[in-house]
Amino acid sequence: MASGSDVMRRPAAPAETPPAAPARHWLVPLLLVVGWVLSVAWRMWLSRHISLPIAHTDEDSYLNTARALAGGPGGLSSENDLLRRVGYPMLISPAFLGDRDFTDSYRLVQLINAMVNSTLLPLAYLLGRRLLQLRRSYALFGAVVAATLPATAFYAGVAMIDAVMAPLVLAWLLAVHRWIGRPGPLAAATVGLLVGAFHLLHSRGLVIVAVHAGLVLLLLIRRRITPPGVLAALLPVLALALANEAVIRLLGDRVYLLGSTPGGSMVEAIASGQGVVRVGAAVVTQLWYLVVITFGMAGVAWAAAVRELWRPRRGDATRWTMGLALVVSVGVASGASAILAGITGKPLDAIYGRYVQMLAPFWLLVGLGVLLTARRRVVLRRAAVAVALLVAGGAVIAVRLAYVASRGHSLRYGGFGAPDLMALTGGWREMRPVVGSLIGIGACLLLVAAVQVPRLRLPIVGVLVVVNLVTMQVIDQRLVRPMAASTAPTPRVADVGVRPGERVWASTGVHYVLRFNLSHQVTWTDVRWFREQPPAAAQVVFTRWAPGQPDDWDGTRYGFVRLGGNVDQNWAAWRRV
Asked: Are 527 and 390 found together in one domain?
């Protein structure tokens, strides 16, 4: 950090009103509670059009496992033995207790997601106050920006682990900051519990577990903690890892896995020089994406964090916290890129931002903290780094896309790779790195110019909130609604006469999205698959309905009568006579 000028060394700004004011003790907590309620309501409103899963097969895996944990039938999961986690299904499993329609259970899952996802607001406020030492008004407005960031709010509407990862990141880094500042067994155990939660939730938690182990070792070597402190920090991680295995064994074969365990294909994908370049380009893409969707603030924050590591001005607590966040950011981006490169049978992704999105609120807040508290010269230097990252990253991605196209190939570009980037750049069918870089540069420079005028600081932060809200509305209109409409089978299973208690199977001839969403509506049994001839135990089957086409399924050959279906969606339900 620049001497005497950076956010990492500046003292907290003076209080805006006398500390003795009676409203001071309850106003901020009240605002946070009201904000949390409004945040939950906003997320539920955004998800109003999603009554069946739209993110296959991730949602299907979590929902089937959650239903099995609640005592209901199991089903398939796209996970594999090595990377299987049960934390998120455990969280949403109460939605499947009792006898209710699937859509009702799905709404409860969305409510659980919204409630957890909305904790970003109070956590972001605490981070702004404790780590960044922002004044109350700045911390509140910054927290609202973080809580409305599309990179995290988007996932509250679907049954995906990403709905809870961003709040967990903020909670973990807050706990680390307190632990380094005030070492003690309770603080160590809190950090260990949160790290264990990462492991229980998703395989990307392995990066955080590794970073946590390194942190504990360094603190022990430097005699910052004692052996009891080491145990307090590590035992919760071990306990939750064992809990994951115990629940998996409890499930048994009620949830059967379709995923393949990463192995030789991943090693082969990164073992060559070309493979290293390919993975490196994917890492650059993910990090560039973080800078774009945070309006350049991630780049500002990284520059400030590196400076803090090189010349600490705010003490070890801030220094170590920033260091951990940097290592995790690069580690998660690298690990995800390596694993995805090893997936065979599918083209590589142009961008797959899901794994790094959980870090976006933290870096956004740190970058805003720099802009709102540092001197002009420091702000300009940090912004110059962000601009350089955007230019370099955009250039690398443009070259990558052009090279792949010149070889006659294409990179996969799906709706869940980076929905916010799609909305910001208008790139619904293809990635637009130059446009993304220009948007990031323009937003960063506008913020830098605005914060130089004190009376414009809060209004410009408010503008970011508006941009987030508009972006989410665009995502809803252009992505969510069309996906919800195209993936929902009509009529409903109950409306064609399928009765509770009947043994139901589905043909692989039905498009997999419709097959999954038909199966979810059968809440009383696990819907298995067949190819051509249904098993003798099947009483009702879902099959392909395509009159005049070779793969049209004729159930009369096997003693079935058609109940109904949708010829436009190419599916029909049949009952055995």
From this structure: no
Amino acid at 230: V
Peptide bond between residue 459 and the one before it cis (omega within 30 degrees of 0): no
End residue of a domain, out of 461, 482, 503:
482
Boundary residue ending a domain (460, 482, 504): 482
Residues 541 and 414 in one domain: no
pTM summary value: 0.93
CA dist., res. 298 & res. 281, Å (int): 19
CA distance 42 to 473: 11
Residues 6+ positions from 227 with CB-CB distance below 8 Å: 220
Q: How far is CA 543 from the centre of its chain?
A: 34
The band of 111, judged by pLDDT with boundaries at 50, 70 and 90, is very high
Mean pLDDT, rounded, of the chain: 92
DSSP 8-state assignment for residue 20: T
Which residues lie below 8 Å from residue 179, measured CB to CB, with a gap of 6+?
Answer: 187, 188, 190, 191
Residue 344: its pLDDT value, please? 56
The CA distance from 26 to 30, in Å, is 6
Residue 342 is predicted with a pLDDT of 67
Strand partners, 505: 528, 541
Asked if residues 392 and 322 have their Cβ atoms less than 8 Å apart, the reply is no
Burial of 536 (C-beta count, 10 Å sphere; 0-12/13-18/19+): exposed
What six digits make up the tokens of 431? 């990635």
pLDDT tier for residue 262 given thresholds of 50, 70 and 90:
low
User: What residue numbers bound the domain in which 31 lies?
Assistant: 22-482
Is 276 a residue whose pLDDT tops 90? no
Nearest-angstrom CA–CA distance, 308 and 153: 30
What is the SS3 assignment for 447? helix
Mark residue 230 as left, alpha or beta (left: phi above 0; alpha: psi -120 to 50; beta: remaining).
alpha
C-alpha pair distances (Å), 335 with each of 13, 237, 310, 328: 39, 20, 26, 10
Same-domain status, 478 and 544? no
Residues in CB range of 180: below 8 A, 6 or more apart: 219, 224, 316, 317, 320, 321
